[in-house]
Amino acid sequence: MAYNGPASNLVKTRSLKSKILDLAQTSIFQVRVKPPAEVLRFLRHEMRGSDLTDDSLDNIYLLCHDAKLPATSLATHDVTDDYQGVTEKLAYRRIYDESIDLTFYVDHNYKVIELFDGWIDYISGLGVTGTRDQYKSVPTPFRFAYPDSYRDNIYLTKFEKDLSRSTSLGYTFIKAYPSSMISIPVTYGASDILRCTVSFTYVRYVRERVMDTAASRGYSTQQLIGRGFITRDNIPAWMNGWSQSDIDKFISAQNNTSASSGRHQDL
Checking phi first, is residue 126 left (phi over 0); if not, alpha (psi -120 to 50) or beta? Predict the structure, then answer.
């Protein structure tokens, strides 16, 4: 049987650069973690005073500092009798990670903490079957919510700055919900940005290739321009065919709209 491995050969530096230096970056990604409707109604109740508007949720998504693309593996069993002296491992089941950890910068109004800690409040019944004052007493009744009311899909999109020629990887985590929040240290030492790490349990994930449009990542066009992903020299595919003058006018108009609204696009 002929050997089908790679042959020894010389590669020019110019060719090598084009093949191995155009690599994906770790720092360009987006998450979308929107609670189910029942949880949102609970979080937005006037008695909680959290003011978690849709705009607030969009800003929280942008505050995600750290995430991990999910791992997967195959469960195998040993086959020892097919060939003499050989043990084969054959797959019989796919194994998914049980959770994904997301770390968020905490805003000065603590809406990040209110979102995820409040989500867990709803699941455990705090504020539903008993008030916060009742929970300050040790003997407090509780009743957990039904899973369908607090689980929903969450999304992680990995993309690159060059929107004009790249596609994205989209991960959908099925039936996810926050199962734990890691303790957040505060100290009188040197100040640092407060971070909140939340662990989400999910059933499985589905990976797919996503066409690189603003809507596919949940970014508005203003946010893409504000974060520098759309410039006069780096435009997405849907702007192909535009004249340079039209591109400049469009970017200028979006920047003016952003400035007049007072919203921070580059978080």
Answer: beta
Residue type (1 letter), 214: A
| pLDDT for residue 219 | 56
28 Ramachandran zone, left/alpha/beta (phi>0; psi -120 to 50)? beta
Helix, strand and coil in the chain, % to nearest 5? 30, 25, 45
Residue 231 DSSP code: B
Q: Which residues does residue 90 pair with via DSSP β-bridges, in sequence order?
A: 77
Length of the chain: 267
pLDDT tens profile 101-158:
999 999 999 999 999 999 999 998 887 776 777 777 777 777 899 999 999 999 998 9
HSE-up of 97 (CA within 13 Å, CB side)?
A: 15
Q: Which residue ranges make up each domain of the chain?
A: 26-217, 220-267
Annotation: CATH topology of 26-217: Pnp Oxidase; Chain A (2.30.110)
